[in-house]
UniProtKB/TrEMBL annotation:
Family annotation (InterPro entries): BTB/POZ_dom (IPR000210), SKP1/BTB/POZ_sf (IPR011333)
Name of the protein described by the UniProt record: Kelch-like protein 6
Keywords: Coiled coil
Superkingdom: Eukaryota
Record region (Disordered): 1-24
Length: 279
């Protein structure tokens, strides 16, 4: 028979790992919530979970699962690393999920590349995609995007930087650092932009020419009708076709100096419109 007496567990608070409180940010300076390893950086210790770091980094996964000496080591040194940057890295990948921003993005990218943390690179890229950029700044980010293989950021930067002239791009301090492929894409998008602008300009010019042409033709028709009414007050058939109006105007111009001058002005205006259109 099982005893009905309640079982009591006794623990030593000094030996119990610290539990993570809801909504709190990990400190990593002490053992906490089943942490099972320690990173040593600049003589500072960061307690972490091998499983968490392995999920983010294939590099650490190999270290913890292969015949590396660190597999069974309780402390793993990271020589040459900055302690504040490693702590920031841990804060970002742990469930607290500290956001990527201007203060940590640029040093997290090299760490993500070194430890093959593709998800972290994607998060950095997502932040950079949302960041506002001038065309001049887009060149800086284009170089950065190529360095860390962020394809979406490359495309975005090319689209923004295409609004710079070739001269402006050449004067940029990072012009020599633009990769050949991105340089080719930038040149192509710049040419396409200029072609579209030229087509748009031609369309606007043609639209204005057509409007002026229509106004001139309307004026000639009105002039022909007025002259016809003066010549034939009782006439019933007012000319409507432009050719009929022109014929009447030419006949009247031979008899009136004022009409002749008006005709010359209109002809000059029409000639400046039609000749470029059909030359």
């Amino acid at each position: 028979m099982w005893s009905s007496c309640p079982v009591k567990f006794t623990t030593n608070p000094k030996q119990t790992p610290m539990m993570q409180k809801k909504g709190s940010v990990p400190d990593f300076t002490e053992p906490w919530h089943l942490s099972d390893a320690v990173l040593v950086v600049e003589e500072k210790k960061f307690h972490f979970h091998k499983g968490t770091l392995s999920m983010w980094s294939p590099v650490f996964e190999r270290i913890f699962s292969s015949d590396f000496k660190e597999k069974f080591a309780s402390e793993i040194p990271l020589p040459g690393k900055d302690a504040s940057e490693i702590k920031e890295l841990l804060l970002v990948i742990y469930p607290t999920s500290k956001p990527i921003g201007e203060t940590n993005c640029y040093f997290l990218l090299p760490l993500a590349r070194e430890y093959q943390m593709d998800q972290l690179t994607e998060r950095c890229e997502k932040y950079l995609l949302q960041r506002e950029k001038t065309p001049h700044q887009a060149i800086d980010f284009l170089v950065l995007a190529n360095e860390f293989n962020m394809e979406d950021l490359c495309k975005q930067c090319v689209e923004i930087a295409k609004h710079m002239s070739i001269t402006e791009v050449r004067r940029h301090e990072k012009y020599a650092m633009i990769a050949p492929e991105e340089g080719r894409q930038l040149a192509e998008r710049r040419v396409e932009l200029l072609e579209n602008k030229m087509q748009s300009s031609e369309q606007r010019v043609n639209s204005v020419k057509k409007e002026v042409k229509d106004v001139c033709e309307w004026g000639l028709k009105e002039m022909g009708r007025v002259l016809y009414q003066k010549k034939s007050p009782e006439g019933r058939r007012i000319p409507r076709a432009l050719s009929d109006c022109l014929k009447l105007i030419e006949e009247t111009a031979s008899e009136s100096v004022e009409v002749a001058v008006m005709i010359q002005l209109v002809q000059h205006r029409l000639r400046s419109i039609y000749e470029p259109m059909y030359s």
